Amino acid sequence: MSCWRWFNNMLEEAGVEVTEENRERIDAVIHDYIEERAAHGKCSTIPSEASIQITGDGTLKGELLARLRQAAEVPVIKE
């Protein structure tokens, strides 16, 4: 299940539009970020709580916004 509803404001702030092409990458970024930070005691593993904690911490928020922007980019396929 996607946890985007808890992170809609961050997606909007990052200027990220969720599309069919980037949907799975964005979902994975959010889940991975929560897991990484929770493992270090920086936020909860529960998306609704993690969203509040990450939004309230400038460093965590900045990191996640950067990762979301990167995930939204369409990968270049070299032939």
Please tell me about this protein's structure.
The chain is mainly alpha-helical and 79 residues long. The protein contains four helices and no strands. It has helices at residues 4-14, 23-39, 47-55, 58-72. Helix 2 (23-39) runs antiparallel to helix 4.
Quickly list its features:
79 residues, 0% strand, single chain, mainly alpha, globular, 4 helices
**Cα-based radius of gyration, to the nearest Å:** 12 Å
- What is the helical fraction, as a range of percent? 55-70%
The major beta sheet can be summarized as:
none
Instruction: State the distance separating the first and last CA atoms.
Output: 34 Å
Shape: globular
Indicate the structural class.
Answer: mainly alpha
Low-confidence region ranges: none
Strand content: under 5%
Number of structurally distinct domains: 1
The whole-number mean of residue pLDDT values reads: 87
Tell me the series of helices and strands, N- to C-terminal: HHHH
Number of helices: 4
Number of strands: 0
How is this structure best summarized?
The protein is mostly helical and 79 residues long. It has helices at residues 4-14, 23-39, 47-55, 58-72.
SSE blueprint and pairings:
Elements: H1 4-14, H2 23-39, H3 47-55, H4 58-72
